[in-house]
Amino acid sequence: MKNRVVVTGMGVCAPNGLGLQEFTKSLQEGKSGIRFHQELEDLKFSCQIAGKPNISQYHINKYFSPLQQRGLNASGIVYGVIAGMDAWKHAGLAIASKETPDWDSGIIFGTGILGVDKFRESIHLIDEGNTRRLGSTSVMQTMASGISAYLGGILGCGNQVTTNSSACTTGTEGILMAYERILAGKAKRILTGSCSDSGPYVWGGFDAMRILPSAYNQAPENASRPMSASAAGFVPGSGAGALVLESLESALERGAHIYGEVLGGAVNSGGQRGEGTMTAPNSEAVQRCIVAAVHNAKIQKGEIDVINGHLTATGKDAVEIQNWSAALGCSGTQFPYVNSFKGLMGHCLAAAGSLECVAALLQFKKGQVFGNINCEDIHPQILEVVDATKIPRATMAHRPEIIAKASFGFGDVNACVIFKAYKNE
To answer: How far apart are CA 79 and CA 371, in angstroms?
Structure first.
């Protein structure tokens, strides 16, 4: 038991749902959280749609004290605190006393870029010679580790408290970092996850690259089209996902609910060599990462029955499916069921991996494989590899045994984690 790691709590702050109940329902029903944003039109963006959590003042008041709210202007921190606190609560864990930290619990919570709006606000004040008006929280809101620092202070974690950052691979990589720390006996439990800021100052660079779909401003829910022949680019998104990883021994001692087991995984990089670039993955590296994850998890390739891919709704989706096929040595009807949740929430950048891992694990709980939306016209190169029945359009009844989830990020970096349904043994 000391060498096994399980997931005992999860939380989400997503474009398609706040909290597990709303998030699960949207996944089951194929309800998109992608919306038109007037601000993007006013700023003359080509793509004027995005996935953004719907946060009200009620939520701010629920998760932040009046003192914490003073000068708070970092959406990623808001999303991360909401998801992280929910995951901790759902795991049945208490907040440490005011006097003593919880030495057995840590935090590995990643981000890509944090506090962009706070940076902008601070720059204006500094340029105007008003540094005294910056407030005491400007540093905490703009440092990358601000999210782990906020959560660490709220929960009182005394083990490792840190932030990782690996572009779109961040959340999945963080799960593996937490898994390895618990496996090594250095912590009993780790709150891991990732978050991403919202807004034009985050999404503008992608709009400038012309890799976002600009033809769907009047039909935002149809814009993100993973595995589709008509995919026109990824829809930017934001939010946060969080998971509590814990040693099986600790979970059983507490009588905790277990969402699934982390069997292992792998991370690597294509080195931006060969076909790999800053923005495109090296296929050999992707395949090596998947194969290494299977080996590390001590399973056979054929045991994987569901894949949750990175699958961003670009022309690279077909290449990703080809890489899965080559790595697992399967095709046609022997290929696992495969889905992408980016049709429902967009590509949430650094938050993508953690949000999608939460969604993948919920399939164990529900005994379902969540459907893919907007892929009525599956890409013909994908159909050369995978039988169409393995890409469910709607949520279907199937009790997964082993799920492989992968993320691939800018910088030619890769991560793949293997989850297993937990059964009392």
So the answer is: 25
> Alpha carbon of 15 to those of 219, 321, 393: distances in Å?
16, 26, 20
Distance CA 139, CA 159 (A): 23
Residue among 390, 334, 402, 317 nearest 363 (CA): 402
Give CA–CA dist 416/290, Å, rounded.
Answer: 6
What's the rounded Cα separation, in Å, for the pair 50 and 348?
9
Identify which of 51, 3, 35 has the alpha carbon closest to the alpha carbon of residue 348: 51
Question: In order of start, what are the domains of the chain with their CATH numbers?
Answer: 5-254 (3.40.47.10), 264-420 (3.40.47.10)
Residues 6+ apart with CB under 8 A from 65: none
Task: Read off the tokens for 235.
Answer: 């829809």
CB 84 within 8 A of CB 109: yes
Q: Each residue of 296-321: pLDDT tens digit?
A: 999 999 999 999 999 999 989 999 99
Asked whether the beta carbons of 345 and 355 are under 8 A apart, the reply is: yes
- 10 Å CB burial of residue 81 (0-12, 13-18, 19+) is buried
Q: Is the separation of the CB atoms in 350 and 168 below 8 Å?
A: yes
Secondary structure (3-state) at 300: coil
**Tokens at 413, concatenated:** 């970096």
Number of C-beta neighbours around residue 220 at 10 A? 22
Distance CA 46, CA 236 (A): 12
Are 345 and 398 contacting, i.e. CB atoms less than 8 angstroms apart? no
Tell me: the pLDDT tens digits for 87-103?
A: 999 999 999 999 999 99
Q: Is the pTM of this model over 0.85?
A: yes
How far, in Å, CA of 339 to CA of 55, rounded? 27
Q: Round to whole Å and give the CA distance between 351 and 196.
A: 5
